[in-house]
Amino acid sequence: MADEELPVPRVPPLPEDRWDDVLKAVVASTGPLNVFTTLARHPDLFASWIGLGSRLLMRGTLDARVREIAILRTAHHRSCEYEWLHHRRLGLEAGLAEAEIGALRLDAAAHGWAPADRAVVDAADELHATGTLSDGAWRALAGRFDERGLIELVMLVGHYHMVAFALNALRVQPEEEE
Questions:
Q1: Is pLDDT of 2 > 70?
Q2: Which positions, given as ranges, span the membrane (predicted)?
């Protein structure tokens, strides 16, 4: 959306004078991101959701590189520019190269992924396309992850699909670049 005008948010971010303690704590850690200040308009749902999101993003068992490959591939599949922009930065911080991040917008075969990373890309693709994993995809992942990691990866992809649905449908806007 480089030169295009962004659509108007369907639900605007919550003004700071209406932030509750949960949102204030989140913002103290992350800054006033529109994803949080928008979803916080439903305080009970936000308080429950932020726990799962924080667990997956900051206290999960998957290493940051794997997590960001899965999230960025999901953001690509869901055409979620907000999610993509935020996780592009996190992907770089996790050690992904620019070429790898760019390749997450391409056919999986267009990049020379290491087999372990390719299994994550393929899993995100299969989950997006079919809502499940084939036995072959499961075996490829099971060679890399323990039981907890397998559960977490599937939950992570599903979670970021849900977040992308919300961000896209609510038309949450990226923050202004400073």
A1: no
A2: none
**Residue 173 CA neighbour count, 13 Å, CB half:** 13
Structure tokens at 178: 């400073």
Q: What is the token pair recorded at 8?
A: 């108007």
Type of residue found at 57: L
Give the separation between CA 76 and CA 102, rounded to whole angstroms.
Answer: 10
In sequence order, which ranges of 31-114 are alpha helices (DSSP H)?
A: 34-39, 43-58, 64-77, 81-93, 98-103
Distance from C-alpha of 154 to C-alpha of 150, rounded to nearest angstrom: 6
User: Which pLDDT score, from 0 to 100, does residue 12 have?
Assistant: 95
What six digits make up the tokens of 46? Answer: 């936000």
Query: Could you tell me if 43 and 105 lie in one domain?
Result: no
Number of domains making up the chain: 2
pTM above 0.90, yes or no: yes
